[in-house]
Amino acid sequence: MESSPDLAARALSFLFIEGGAMSRKKLSSLLECTVPELQAAFTAISERLKGSGLTLVESDTEASIVVAKDTSEVVEKALKQELERDIGDAGLEILAIVMYMGPSTRARIDYIRGVNSSSTLRNLLARGLVERITNPDDAREYLYRPTAETLAHLGATKVNELPDYDTILRELAAFEKKNDPFADADDGTKQT
User: Higher pLDDT residue, 19 or 184?
Assistant: First the structure.
């Protein structure tokens, strides 16, 4: 049996990275532990988080790290102020990428923009302008895509109805290809 502090630390890491609820089954599988070992880890996490502003929430099927009740009011107030602000150029850039290029990983978004997009993506997620889905090609990362509400707000029922869709898509694809560090300058194929 694995020592509880090591298992608790790894469980906490997975729950943090998930950014939302994770099924007990998935977490147990990732940690390669039994149900009783996972429950012991949850107990250790709960103790560790006391007074930290975070807490572990458990149901019969899943668990999540959330803001603790004693700090939720101040966090809610700050988030409300943040959401009242304009999304800014960074938010517009990310929306353009995910709308015109389709579902994209954060790494791809960062690459195209040339800067870290984590906080802006969180802001767009909180506003319901983009959604995060599991990447079917790599379960270790997420894809970000516009929500139906975002498209509706823009007067489009599908992304290809967006203004200058074909032109902008071609330009973004050309930019990505031109700046690909693994492309061979002679024939455009990727080097391995």
Answer: 19
Residues 121 and 130: beta-carbon distance below 8 Å: yes
The burial of 11, by beta-carbon neighbours within 10 Å (0-12 exposed, 13-18 middle, 19 or more buried), is given as: buried
- The answer to whether 153 touches 123, Cβ cutoff 8 Å, is no
Label residues 83-100 b or e (16+ Cβ within 10 Å = b). eeeebeebbebbbbbbbb
Has domain 4-68 been given CATH number 3.40.50.970? no
In this prediction the pTM is 0.54
Nearest Cα neighbor of 42 from 89, 10, 82, 73 is 10
**Section 129-140 average pLDDT:** 89
State the span(s) of the chain assigned CATH 1.10.10.10.
Answer: 4-68, 86-178
Class of domain 86-178: mainly alpha
Question: Are 125 and 133 a contacting pair, CB within 8 Å?
Answer: no
Residue 191 clears pLDDT 50, i.e. is over it: no
SS3 55: strand
Cβ atoms of residues 142 and 132 within 8 Å: yes
The stretch 128-136 carries a mean pLDDT of 91
